[in-house]
Amino acid sequence: MLNQRYYPVFREVLIETEHLLAELHEDDGHYRVLQRALGKLRQDFLNDRVFPALIVPGLAWQALGLEDSRALYVLNAAHYLFYAFLDLTDDVEDHELDDPLWRQLGEPLAINTGTSLLFASLLMLDRLKGQVKSHKTIETLKTLFIKAGWQLTAGQHRDLASGRSQSLSAEDVLRTHQLKTGTSVGLYLESAALLAGAKPKQRKLFAELGRHLGVMVQIRGDWVNVMTPFSSDFANACQSLPLALLSQCLNQSQADQAIYQAAQLRAAQDQAAHDIVRHLLKKHAVAEPMHELLEAQRQEVNRLLSRLEKNDCDISALTSFISRFQPIIDL
Questions:
Q1: DSSP 134-156
Q2: CA distances to 147, 243, 292 from 119, in Å
Q3: What pTM was computed for the model?
Q4: Which residue in 61, 102, 82 sits closest to 17, CA to CA?
Q5: Does residue 271 sit within a domain?
Q6: Domain total for the chain?
C-alpha cells in the first residue's frame, strides 16, 4: 500500500473539506452529490492509485524543510476539490460517467456538481486566513488556480476537438498532455512552494518540475489504459499517446491500417477490437518509443531535482515518489 504513508494527511484533508461543505450547505441533494463525486476520489486513493493532487504538495513542503501544518492541509483540500472538479467534468465530456447515480440523475446535474467543486476549491483557500502572514499570498494562490484552470480548459478543448482525428501526431498529444496533466501537477508543486515561502527561483523550479512530472504521469497512464482489456481511451476516441504513435507506424502498413480502422469503428462495444489494438501495439513495438518519451521526461525531472538540491532543497521525498513511475518496458 504505497499511499498508506499519506493516510494521516488525507484524514486532515477530509476534515477540512467537510468543514467547508458544512459551512456552504444550501441544499441536502446538492450536498449529497458533492459527496458522491468526492467519494470516487476517496476510493481511488484507498485503492492505491497515484494521486498527485494529495501527495505532491506535501513533497514540495518537505523539500523546503517544513513540517506538516494546517496551512498545508487546507491547501491540499483545495487541490482535492479542484481535482474532483476536473475528474467529474472530464468524465462528462468523455462520456465516461460510470457511476449509476449520474446515469440516473443525468449529465446536467453532473456538470453542475463539477462547477460547484471548482468554486469550492477557491473558497477553501480563504480558510488560509490566519494561517499566512499576508492575505496577498491567498490572492496569489487564487490567481494560480484560475490560470491553471484556464490552461486546463485549453488542453481539454484540444482533447475534445482534435482527439478524434486519425492523423493526430504524437507531438499534438504531448502538447495536450502538457496543458492538462502538466498544468495540474505544476499547480500542486508551485502553490505549495508559494505557501511555504519559497524563494522566486525555487518556486519557478518547482513549477517546471511539476509540468514535466505531470507529463510523466500522463504518458504512463496512457500506456496502462491501452493495456487494459477494455481501454476507455480507445473506446471514446480520446487523445492517447500510444494510439497516436501506432497510427504513425501504420502509415507504413496498409493491411494493418485497415485492420486498425475497422477496430476503431467497433471500439465502443466490441471487446475484440481492443484485443486487436493490443496486438498491433505489440507487433509494431510501440512500447519502445513510449519508453523513450517517458525517459526523456524523467531526464528533465532529474535535471530539475538536481537544480533544486543546489538551491537548498531536500529532494529525498520527491525522488522516492518519482521512483514509483516504472519504465514502460517494465509495465
A1: -HHHHHHHHHHHHHHHHHHHHHH
A2: 14, 35, 39
A3: 0.91
A4: 82
A5: no
A6: 1
